[in-house]
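Lay summary

Proteins are chains of building blocks that fold into shapes. Our project writes down both the chain and a compact code for its shape. Here are two examples, one after the other.
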Amino acid sequence: MHNIICPNMVYGQTMMMGHGHHAVHMLVKSLMPELEAYWPSLYCTSSKRCFGGKGPIWAHEWEKHGTCSYPVIQDEYDYFATTLNLYTKYNVTRILKNAGIDALNGEKYLLSDVVSAIKKDFGATPLLVCKKGSVQELRICFYKDFKPRDCVSGLSSNATDDITKSSSSCPTYINLPTYKPLEYIPSKVCKQVELRF
């Protein structure tokens, strides 16, 4: 899960108040079980992998994306709690499964079927980013009140054109892959843990 909640970016306003990964960890301690289950933070072994610093991805998410959501979101706790609530409320895996699309079976699915299933449930068009025929990112966009909105602008009257424009890096048939992170933060020993789409 890579959530970006940045409602003020529409107006070009940002607020930067980075606390570093230790402070973020302390402020969201009560959310740790949910964060570890639904948004596991990977331990980074190089500056390149960690966007310029070493440490958990949660600090990066807050510093890069969370701080720009002020004043709608007041602090780190509010940012991560809101992100987890949105993840639960708009559960893409459940929606796809209900539409007969199982992200875990390795099958290829029509891009239009994936987009249509999400659009039908959310009332908004997602944006998919693919690499080598597999979905790398599935973006769901929100208004400042956290209601879904189309991730694309200037939608045509033709649904097929909308899907093509919103997901131009994706082929007609796509894979919905599972990911294996290098290591969970709580772990002292490197292990392979599957994250499921």
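And here is the second example, written the same way.
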Amino acid sequence: MTTEAPDPAPARSIPAPALRETADIWFDTGRDPVIVWDAEGRTFRLQDPRDATCSLHLVTYPAGVRSPAELAAALAEGLAACDFPPTADGAAAGHVASALRAYGISPPPG
């Protein structure tokens, strides 16, 4: 009998099942991804919920945001709606900015 390892996804994450196709292309793990953020609420990534090495950079702010979970939800929904094509190591800044603006959130400067 085999048991699955416990889910090591950090508490600073939200499910992003609508981004499964992107996750399947980049990670090929067969699991719905999550959007995770760092302790400061600055950096956001699309990540496999059980393997942190399978991740794709989405956006980094110069300082922590007020509501990281709200921003992560906007990224999850907004990027799924625009069917974003990632670059070699992350989401294109223009797609992220458009997704955030659609939810009334200012993208990071630069």
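What can we say about the second shape? The CA atoms of residues 41 and 64 lie 4 Å apart.
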